[in-house]
Amino acid sequence: MFALPLGVAIARSHAGEMETNVLLNTLRQVRNALLLLINAVLRTTPFAVVFLVAGAISTYNTSGSTIVSQGGFLILAFVTGVVSHTLLLMPFLFFLFTRANPYNYMKQLVPAYMYAFGCSSSMATLPVAVAVVHQTRQVSRSMAQLVMYLGTPVHMNAAGVYYPLMTIFLAAMSGANDKIGTPQLVVLFFVSLIGSMGTAPVPNAAIVMLMTVWKTVLPTTPLPSSFVYVVAGDFIFDRLSTMTNVHGNMFVTRILAQRYDDPVEAWSDETSEDARTPVPGV
């Protein structure tokens, strides 16, 4: 809420060209410096996670097989949740509103899924997702750009699975599951709902938000050492979450296009414009 008016004020504070706005250029340089620091931290994160997990495991009074089974159960539970949402719930809603085969549509979106899994960032996948949705010839370019650019920051489907699952898992592992009652579940529901609209669409953002969710649901209980399971599995969680979020945005875009767009006419207009454009050398 503060960034938008600040950006407008900075843009209007200079009468000349934007490139000569000293304050704007200074803020851009600060942003670039912070991005360099963040990238440096991300590059060293795998090494830190190894020592973090090793230290936590050494303090447990459980066997290695138990630790592996607990971590495997967490991954399996999350995979089951996102797969059910991606392959069952969203296709059902897709068919309900469009009366089209959702799985045929999904086949055309494979490049966006692969890119999302590789980069683990919904924002970085956005240009690829917009291009792929438009190339299906079922959504016009303007509709794809409008819905995808608005939906990426606020439409995080995977967060609705991630935050409740991880919170309950941490509570069970720390022996605090007796503190999870109806009031805590209600708070967890609304915090997860807000988190699905407020989590930054960048890598590893969910871990930071998860700590906030934990302190909101159980404010008097410290974050348990089993949090290392979540950190260790974030390589998988984050990529699957990105794919799920991108998948949801592309499906919602197609559903809205069914009601408010005319993709065939839009595609024909763009094709005819391309055909009228003279090709150099011809």
TrEMBL record:
User: Which residue ranges does UniProt annotate as crossing the membrane?
Assistant: 34-60, 72-97, 112-134, 146-165, 185-210
UniProt entry tagged with the keyword GTP-binding = no
For this protein, what is any one GO molecular function term?
Answer: symporter activity
Broad class of the protein's primary localization: membrane
Q: Which GO terms describe its cellular component?
A: plasma membrane
List UniProt keywords, sorted A-Z. Answer: Cell membrane, Membrane, Symport, Transmembrane, Transmembrane helix, Transport
The cross-references to SUPFAM superfamilies, in alphabetical order and at most eight, read: Proton glutamate symport protein
Q: Indicate how the chain sits in the lipid bilayer.
A: Multi-pass membrane protein
- Xref: Pfam families: SDF
- Spell out the subcellular localization from the entry: Cell membrane; Membrane
InterPro entries recorded: Na-dicarboxylate_symporter (IPR001991), Na:dicarbo_symporter_sf (IPR036458)
Family listed: Belongs to the dicarboxylate/amino acid:cation symporter (DAACS) (TC 2.A.23) family.
Q: What is this protein called?
A: Amino acid transporter
- The protein's organism comes out as Saprolegnia parasitica (strain CBS 223.65)
